[in-house]
Write a structure and sequence with these properties.
mainly alpha, two-stranded antiparallel sheet
Amino acid sequence: MSKPALDQVPEFYQNYVRQVPEGEVVPLLEQCGSTFLEYLHTIPEEKGDFAYADGKWTIKQLLLHIIDAERVFCYRAMRFSRNDKTDLPGFDQDAYVIESKAEARPLDQLITEYDSVRQASISLFKGLSEAQLHFKGTANGYVFDASMTGYILIGHQVHHYTIMKDRYGL
């Protein structure tokens, strides 16, 4: 399974897929996850509550947002791979961040959770057949196939990793 062509990706998600290197979804999940995890381990605990500007998410909030989004995209991939034709709703990322209470959690706990979620994502995609990866579904009004959700979640993580390095100065 290779990266989908951008003209097959809903426009809203094209920027994420654009940021994903060429390759198959499982090795990319492993590689991008490992690189991001190494980076996260360099962030001191005291920086966890840092936001680069007023009204922007803290490092902890941003990391928990990445975790939440990965769970949502994997849930979609699982549903689509089972040929589920139920239209799935979107999710309100800002409401999720507010309710996450990320600020009350230690950064190292969030890093461990990220790693656990990524390992579960890898297991999910490893277990899907070629046919299952191509089953389509609808979420938030957009049509995807199961493999596309994997590339979107990788691109989403890469997008935020870049923001963390560029705007948070870490």
